[in-house]
Amino acid sequence: MSELRVGQQATAGPAPRRAHRLGWLLGQLREPYVQLIASQMLTGAVAFAANILMVRSLTPTHRGEVALLLQVTYLATQVLLLGTERSFVATYHNVAPAPAVKAYAKLLLIPCAVGLAGAVLYTAVAPHSHNPGPVLVAMLAWYTVVEASSLATRSIAIAVGRVRDFMMCRVIESALLLVMLAGLYATHASHPEVWFLAYLVAGAVPTIVYLVVWLRLPPDPAAVPVRHEQARMVRREGLSLFPAAISNMAMLRVDRLVIPALASTAALGLYTSVATMTELLAWPLRAYADSRLGRWRAAHQDGTLRAAPIVLAAAVYTLVAVPLVAGTLYLLIVPVFGHQYAPAKVVVLPLVIAAGLYALSRISLGLLIARGHGTLVSAAEITGFAVSFAVYLLLIPRLGILGAAYGSLAGYGACLLFALVASRLVKDRSHV
């Protein structure tokens, strides 16, 4: 009988272990940072497909014009948000969806109204040589509002614990965008404005749907109640992070604005075809930092936050990902994009390394935000932008898109170095 029991235990042993592993895996898939990474990777895959469709349908000049319109929108979006994207996550932790939507709507109401009024005023008074026309200005203005709302839903989803909803919203947006861009490719559409309109429609529809759904959800008795002073806290911390948000977006996007001025829109088309892909390398670490911001702040307040293992793990990811991404992208440019994009191969290595440094900086700056040092975060982002912009002005006229790649590498490296030094100084002061 004893041998029979031992045999039965040995036979039944692996099953519970497999069930335990399966449960652990399912638990990891429900983690917010995994869902954020999944949504970003889906967006990245669609961006990769969209990039291919555009470079196959548009000349480098027209591809550069679409990129320019998108970059203007992304920069203007940060002006509407006023740095509240991360401060909202840290302050409105574990609140109910409907109050969170209403709270963020109040934060965005005045900036959006001022932005739309500014667009109307610009259309009326701008000289003809610098005025793209009321239709295009209206598209830029409304897409800016849509993008600001989309980033707000991301912050709301993290704060209220409904990242799965946000992921489904991005799935719908990606599907809509891919279908519309495929239709434009099939019909041989060659006007940049039409391709830009597809981004506007695809972003607006699911964002509006999910905001309405969240507003109609029943109250959650287990949620943390919203306090009036939280809005002031978000705005105050957001303003301290606003220079960081603007500098970060400028550091990411100003190269797309400088290249047409110092080189050509054709050069921008070549550069963007690579830069759009290398940015994907930083998305997992950025998603992880954003999803953990509330927990890191709580751990810091409890005195249990350990930054060194987090930064070390991020460094290992970067060291593994950089050579894989660089080699793959270098080999795929001509077969995927076509021979007219072969000159873009020269910027692959510096842009991939720059993306790796940028990814590491997201972790370091996220830890600084969790510790309440928004001013240092802004200083780091401003430093990175200043270095990159100076290198752009110096090298783009001489080296073209390679100078822009070196500028990104220098700027991201300076931002990371500042963040690491600042983190060390803050730690030393706390010990003293």
Model description:
It is a single chain. The protein has helices at 2-12, 14-29, 32-57, 60-81, 84-91, 97-125, 134-160, 163-186, 192-215, 228-262, 265-278, 283-291, 293-302, 307-337, 348-370, 374-399, 401-431. With 432 residues, it is mainly α. The chain has two domains: 31-248, no CATH class; 260-431, no CATH class. Helix 5 packs antiparallel against helix 10 and helix 7 packs parallel to helix 9 (192-215). Residues 1-12 and 428-432 have low confidence and may be disordered.
Largest sheet: none
Name the shape in a single word.
globular
DSSP strand tally:
0
* Overall tally of structural domains: 2
GO cellular component, one term: plasma membrane
Organism: Actinoplanes octamycinicus
InterPro entries: Poly_Biosynth_Transport (IPR050833)
Subcellular location: Cell membrane
Q: Could you provide a short overview of the structure?
A:
The chain has helices at residues 2-12, 14-29, 32-57, 60-81, 84-91, 97-125, 134-160, 163-186, 192-215, 228-262, 265-278, 283-291, 293-302, 307-337, 348-370, 374-399, 401-431. By secondary structure, the chain is mostly helical.
Features:
single chain, 432 residues, mainly alpha, 2 domains, 0% strand, disordered N terminus, disordered C terminus
